[in-house]
Amino acid sequence: MPKKPIIIGVTGGSGGGKTSVSRAILSNFPDEKIAMIEHDSYYKDQSHLTFEERVSTNYDHPFAFDTDLMIEHINELIAGRPVDIPIYDYTQHTRSDKTYRQEPQDVFIVEGILVLEDKRLRDLMDIKLFVDTDDDIRIIRRIKRDMEERGRSLDSIIEQYISVVKPMYHQFIEPTKRYADVVIPEGVTNTVAIDLINTKVASILEESKKA
Question: Which part of the chain is the Phosphoribulokinase/uridine kinase domain (predicted)?
Answer without folding.
Answer: 7-192
